[in-house]
Amino acid sequence: AQTVTQSQPEMSVQEAETVTLSCTYDTSESDYYLFWYKQPPSRQMILVIRQEAYKQQNATENRFSVNFQKAAKSFSLKISDSQLGDAAMYFCAYRSYYGGATNKLIFGTGTLLAVQP
Amino acid sequence: DSGVTQTPKHLITATGQRVTLRCSPRSGDLSVYWYQQSLDQGLQFLIQYYNGEERAKGNILERFSAQQFPDLHSELNLSSLELGDSALYFCASSARQGADYGYTFGSGTRLTVV
Fold it and tell me: Mind listing the pLDDT tens digit for each residue in B101-110?
């Protein structure tokens, strides 16, 4: 069974600085998707960024980028120029490439990011 | 607004009772997923429906059931409620069975069992 591990329960960053959130996963599959979701105090789950395992190029969305290391099964999120609105819980998630019973998203336990003014 | 509508936003009920949580997926999405978020278990997948049919089941208790109706809205029924069922229940939708672009989540229903 696949697992997702986020080893940093809490992180803090100064406004305008850069922070990296870590995520590792375990799977025997070769094709899969990885996601980062943001959950602000409103509790809404917001998709931040996604990565297909078959793509070597790291995904980027504005100030958010990932460092995807397939061999190491690592998927970290880098937030550049941190803003107060980035303060939230961040979840790393895995989904198998194949459908059926493996459609589900498997989430890590989350990292609570605080942004200091 | 994500386009996924969940009602009610908050629900307080007593142990032993039954409640129904409702989800309307984003327009055009055929797949609906239910997740439970609790402090001790994190985000857990419960069940998935695709175009009215059950497609995948996770750690859903026998006291819980769900269905998806012809208009694609879905309901999650929780019965014989226990204190431990208190959690945030999310519904998410996607256009197809798979979620290549991730799911779109609703804002959740906060269930408190007292």
Answer: 678 899 999 9
